[in-house]
Specification:
Length: about 325
């Protein structure tokens, strides 16, 4: 018997199809695996946390507690932050009490006493940004060399990773045009930073090249979304020099986005303190809202990225090999 599909049922089928596709992009962590000491094996493992500076409030402390357990399990050798280290207005000096309430007292577990490589976010730019650089002279683990900087991590005898940390807030017009709220943004030389980034990428010989900043290039979030200035000035360099990953925060969710024809994986991991609702767009591979952080594992020619929740649950897990 043939079934006639009316206009109403046709619309219903389209709705159900769209709902199914959305589910693929907003997977939940129910019944997922958890991070254990054997999850990654012997590799160079590190954690990434962003948008986390809430003096232990909201979800910051519970995220930090699980970071400690995971860092111990995977033997994390360092931690990277993608900005908004201090909510909601940065720090005033290296002696600001927020250093204790947002950082030292929250991430005090033994496994987190490794080197931290931060970048600054827009909320950090509401305060004294130089103080975050100067704190590196006081702290044994806070290692912000400058507003933007780079370093190399050796993976094995033949493979290394180039890690590049950029300062994105001064690139964004709305902050430069608001010196009252963001006094240090307009003082920065954007052309100098972009020239520096181009030079670093031009001379990078490492097999893995990863860039870390606060603002997304692409994001499906309805809170902030894409950053036009990042698309105009940073994205061309990422594509030109075949960067494999761009990690960021700013939008408070987990996202993996991929642009057709590009080598770059765009990763948003802004769930270190206050997750917000997520959404998807045409570039979304995965999108999810849950407190947590990311783990990156580098082993030979394979990089593995995991989004991890506060129960140690693996929210999303994918691998990429370099060519």
């Amino acid at each position: 018997m043939k079934i006639k599909i009316t206009g109403f049922f046709s619309l219903l089928l389209i709705f159900l199809s769209l709902a199914g596709n959305a589910q693929k992009n907003t997977n939940t962590s129910k019944d997922s695996a958890t991070v254990t000491s054997t999850t990654f094996g012997k590799a160079t493992n590190f954690l990434i946390v962003s948008d986390y500076g809430w003096s232990g409030e909201k979800d910051q402390q519970v995220v930090a507690n699980q970071m400690a357990k995971t860092a111990d399990s995977v033997e994390a050798t360092f931690i990277i932050t993608c900005g908004d280290n201090f909510q909601v207005a940065g720090v005033v000096s290296t002696q600001d009490p927020l250093w204790k309430s947002c950082f030292e007292d929250v991430y005090k577990a033994k496994s987190l006493q490794v080197e931290w490589y931060p970048v600054m976010g827009n909320h950090d730019y509401k305060g004294n940004t130089q103080a975050q650089i100067d704190y590196s002279k006081i702290s044994s683990r806070w290692r912000m060399q400058d507003r933007y900087y780079t370093l190399v991590k050796k993976i094995n005898d033949s493979i290394s990773a180039r890690l590049i940390f950029i300062d994105t807030a001064p690139l964004v017009t709305q902050y430069r045009n608001n010196p009252t709220d963001y006094p240090d943004a307009v003082k920065q030389d954007n052309d100098k930073e972009i020239e520096w980034l181009n030079n670093v990428l031009t001379n990078a010989k490492e097999q893995w090249i990863m860039v870390f900043g606060h603002h997304p290039v692409y994001s499906a979030s309805q809170k902030h979304g894409n950053t036009p200035e990042m698309i105009a000035r940073v994205k061309p360099l990422l594509n030109k020099y075949h960067v494999q990953f761009y990690f960021c925060g700013h939008d408070h969710d987990f996202q993996r986005l991929h642009e057709k024809g590009s080598n770059v994986e765009y990763i948003v991991t802004g769930t270190g303190g206050e997750p917000r609702p997520c959404s998807t767009n045409e570039m979304s591979v995965f999108s999810h809202s849950e407190p947590g952080f990311s783990v990156v594992s580098l082993k030979g020619n394979k990089a593995r990225v995991c989004f991890v929740g506060v129960n140690g649950n693996i929210i999303y897990d994918f691998s990429k090999s370099y060519k």
